[in-house]
């Protein structure tokens, strides 16, 4: 889908296609965070009652 968006942008100059491409590019570059880790990479501890 990323390559398709770039191809559409390069042929048509459609800004929406470029923005979609950039959004997918950013998603590829962002590290995935699991449910058990916060953004700092620290293990999330369940609350103790």
Please supply descriptive tags for the structure shown above.
mainly alpha; 49 residues; 2 helices
- Helical content, roughly? 40-55%
**DSSP E strands, number:** 0
Q: Count of DSSP helices? A: 2
Tell me the structural class.
Answer: mainly alpha
Describe, in short, the structure shown.
This protein is mainly α. The protein is built from two helices and no strands. The chain has a domain at 1-29.
Written account of the structure:
InterPro entries: YqzL (IPR025617). Residues 28-49 are annotated as: Disordered. It holds the Pfam family YqzL. This is YqzL family protein. With 49 residues, the protein is an all-alpha fold. The protein has a domain at 1-29. 53% of the residues lie in helices and 0% in strands. The chain has 2 helices and no strands. It is rod-shaped and about 60 Å long.
Helices, strands, pairings?
Blueprint lengths: L1 H11 L2 H15 L20
């Amino acid at each position: 889908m990323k390559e398709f968006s770039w191809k559409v942008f390069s042929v048509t100059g459609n800004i929406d296609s470029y923005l979609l491409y950039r959004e997918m590019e950013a998603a590829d570059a962002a590290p995935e965070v699991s449910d058990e880790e916060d953004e700092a990479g620290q293990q999330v501890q369940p609350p103790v009652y």
